Amino acid sequence: MSLIVGGSVALDTLETPHGRADRVFGGSASYFAYAASFLTKASLVGVIGHDFPDEYLKVLEGRGISLAGLERSPKPTFSWHGKYHENMNNRDTLHVDLSIFEGWQVKVPSVLQNADTVCLANMSPKQQLMLLQQCKNPRFVVADTMNLWIEIERDALFDVIRASHLFILNDEEARQLTENDNLIVAGKSLLKRGPRYVVVKKGEHGALLIAKEGTYSIGAYPLEKVFDPTGAGDCFAGGLAGYLDKTGDLSFKGVKEALLAGTTAASFCVEDFSFHRLRKLTDQEFNARLAALRTHVTL
Ligand code: AMP
């Protein structure tokens, strides 16, 4: 099986109660692909600028992630500056530079067009759709989004939701998109728009799965220290999608199991800034934590 993910590859400036990091490696597709690589063969589609360090590309290649779909542009790399509140569950975007995405025509190389699992990580919904249209016959489509696109590209976002099998977003975004405070009601209203599954991420409180078969709630991996939550949502989605690509079991039970892989990936991500923890993470460590988590949960 194989998985492709399209989205942002970024230079992030991060402020958390534990400190600050400037122009470090980030991006929705970077985290997503990295997490998926612990479970399956992952390829990344995206665009980077003239200023993007080769060292970060090596981090992705080190996990066997194909960068055949990663373009280099003369513009500056997408950058995002986020500041977390004291509780680290909420954050503000202080600055975002989307100029590299303006007029960017997403191109999926022909070798990647037959991927079984297509993942539309956070980028403009129009570009998410452009990517999906080039994929031949995906078995499973996973889509993510964020508040900016809910605000400025709502209609195209609903087209993405309609085209996805599993739509994933966080609690704040689910409330904003559906104008409903109850997450189960919000999730059910999104199900009516097409996807077979809706997953609502709730940060340190875990995640909810909503499907016609029922709902399921999973807690986060219990950690005593959370350093930087950036990328946790993307790692969660990448672990989940990677697991589904690996097992091919798209049943309700199969998706519940996949949530454990998402939870595992996210738990490593938050242990340090940027990719600092992830880049040291071994397959053995990943599998050991996934196995430990499995013993805590009754499916
Ligand atoms: P997460 O913490 O999982 O929600 O994802 C954080 C990542 O999303 C950061 O590394 C950012 O570079 C990236 N990001 C932030 N805003 C956007 C945006 N509007 N489009 C695409 N990626 C973004």
Structure in words:
With 299 residues, the chain is α/β, with parallel strands linked by helices. It has helices spanning 28-36, 54-61, 125-133, 147-152, 154-163, 171-178, 183-191, 232-247, 252-269, 283-296, and strands at residues 2-6, 10-16, 19-26, 41-48, 66-72, 79-84, 91-97, 117-120, 140-144, 166-170, 197-201, 207-211, 214-218. It has a nine-stranded mixed β-sheet, sandwiched between helices. It has a four-stranded mixed β-sheet with strand order 3-2-6-7. A hairpin with a 2-residue loop joins strand 2 and strand 3 (19-26). Helix 1 (28-36) packs parallel to helix 8, helix 3 runs parallel beside helix 5 and helix 8 (232-247) crosses helix 9 (252-269). The longest helix is centred in the C-terminal third of the chain and has 18 residues, at 252-269. The chain is globular and about 50 Å long. The relative contact order is 0.16. The model has no long low-confidence stretch (mean pLDDT 96). It binds adenosine monophosphate (AMP). Adenosine monophosphate binds at residues 8, 10, 12, 26-28, 80, 96, 122-123, 146, 148, 230-234.
Main features:
299 residues; alpha/beta; 9-stranded mixed beta sheet; 4-stranded mixed beta sheet; 10 helices; 36% helix; globular; binds adenosine monophosphate
Secondary structure layout plus pairing:
Layout: E1 2-6, E2 10-16, E3 19-26, H1 28-36, E4 41-48, H2 54-61, E5 66-72, E6 79-84, E7 91-97, E8 117-120, H3 125-133, E9 140-144, H4 147-152, H5 154-163, E10 166-170, H6 171-178, H7 183-191, E11 197-201, E12 207-211, E13 214-218, H8 232-247, H9 252-269, H10 283-296
Parallel strand pairs: 1-4, 1-8, 2-6, 4-5, 8-9, 9-10, 10-11
Antiparallel strand pairs: 2-3, 6-7, 11-12, 12-13
Helix pairs in contact: 1-8, 3-5, 6-7, 8-9, 9-10
Bound molecules: adenosine monophosphate.
Adenosine monophosphate (AMP) binds at residues 8, 10, 12, 26-28, 80, 96, 122-123, 146, 148, 230-234.
